[in-house]
Design goal:
By secondary structure, this protein is an alpha/beta fold. The protein is 49% helix and 13% strand. It has an 8-stranded parallel β-barrel with strand order 1-2-3-4-5-6-7-8, surrounded by 9 helices.
Length: 291
């Protein structure tokens, strides 16, 4: 069974939602896997911030995404769900990039309907493309995949600029053209989440961005509302960024890191996370063959 098939089985469970933390770097992906999670969400926001120090406002493209995908798949054995923004162009570009990402080894590809340059889903001032064009892009993504188990996630950002009625209508149309999962981003209330859960057919995804528009609910409540996938796309990034900044302030003021000793990994612990012993064993084995 390949990883896309594994992801489909995880999403098909009827007793719980699949909770997936987000990552922008291989180190986060290793921590996610080490903690026992079953998949990784590769976040466009996290790629922009972690790998490039940039805001999530459409400053990166397919090349930067593929680089991040390759780095994570090199070290993680988990299914990877990829935020591919708008597909970075028209239907032809969507087709090419779905093929590219699938060939790289991802298990799910998310395409959204914002105009380019896009913005983070919880920012103000978003706008979406025409609904018919959005449907064509989703249908193209479905047609482009070679492996029928590759999950196509269709995201709409129509709720904020156009209202929940249009967002739900787009979600329904995305399902009709073959999207495996629908993601209506940034619902601002439990009532909106409940309406989405009862109105849009098929698998549904919810996005928890603490401090953003969507309520931060327990996974059990999301499941009761009809959502099969709950992502935390930038939570690890924001926790780490705050800790790094606080440490730098302390180091600048105190001239040492003594107060942080219990809040950091020891060198041996970090080496364990990045698989030092595995790579040393590979070296020992290959060197032994030459003797």
């Amino acid at each position: 069974m390949n990883k896309a098939s594994t992801l489909r089985q995880l999403l098909a469970r009827d007793d719980q939602s699949l909770v997936v933390p987000g990552a922008g770097t291989p180190l986060e992906a290793l921590a996610i896997e080490s903690a026992g999670f079953e998949a990784v969400y590769l976040s466009g926001y996290a790629i922009a911030a972690w790998r490039h120090g940039l805001p999530d406002i459409g400053l990166l493209g397919a090349g930067e995404l593929l680089d991040a995908v390759t780095a994570i798949l090199r070290v993680s054995s988990l299914p990877v769900i990829v935020d591919a923004d708008t597909g970075y162009g028209d239907v032809t570009t969507v087709y090419a990039n779905v093929r590219l990402l699938e060939a790289a080894g991802v298990s799910a590809i998310q395409i959204e309907d914002q105009v380019w340059p896009k913005k983070c889903g919880h920012m103000v001032g978003k706008e979406v493309i025409d609904a018919d064009e959005a449907v064509r892009k989703v249908a193209t993504a479905v047609d482009a995949r070679r492996d029928p188990d590759t999950v196509i996630i269709a995201r709409t950002d129509a709720l904020a600029p156009r209202g929940i009625d249009e967002a739900i209508e787009r979600g329904k149309r995305f399902s009709e053209v073959g999207a495996d999962m629908v993601f209506i981003d940034a619902p601002a209330s439990v009532e909106d989440l409940a309406r989405i859960g009862t109105s849009v057919p098929g698998l549904l995804m919810a996005n928890v961005s603490e401090g953003g528009r969507t309520p931060s609910l327990p996974a059990e409540q999301f499941h009761e509302l009809g959502f099969q996938l709950v992502i935390y796309p930038t939570t690890p990034l924001r926790i780490a960024a705050k800790a790094i900044k606080e440490f730098m302030v302390d180091l600048r003021r105190e001239g040492n890191a003594l107060a942080w000793r219990e809040r950091m990994y020891g060198l041996d612990e970090l080496n364990e996370l990045v698989g030092l012993e595995h790579y040393l064993a590979v070296g020992d084995r290959e060197n032994a063959r030459r003797v």
